[in-house]
Amino acid sequence: MWSKTYSKQVSGLPAGKVWEVWTDINRWHIWQPDIESAELDGEFKAGNTFRLKPKGGSWVSIQILEVEPGHQFTDLTCFPGARMYGCHEFITHGDELEIRTTMSIEGFLSFLWRKMVAEKIADGMAAQTEALIEEAKRI
What we know:
Elements: E1 2-11, H1 15-23, H2 28-31, E2 35-41, E3 49-54, E4 60-68, E5 72-79, E6 82-93, E7 96-106, H3 110-123, H4 125-138
Helix pairs in contact: 1-4
């Protein structure tokens, strides 16, 4: 299994605002420049799915595996021979909020999907976190 984590602490930003932005999947394209479109099927809850279309890419179906409202969610993208997980956590440390994202990939073809997809996503986690923070401050 391959895994990469990015974490940032920010002051004065309530977890609820960050949660509101993260769970509004249909608006991800507004604050994430690498996403052309995203569509949530139903409510933001475990077992439901969403689709996203990266800029210049094809639609990808992603399942929401686990949700702890206001604190964390985990999603799963299945590829032939591999599974990629995204774990998104919001941890309060006094008046600071830690925003942590971990991408991991496993399976017999994970080495291939790591090079084709996962590393690019992981390389963009810092910029994505900054955009998430800015959008949460804006609302």
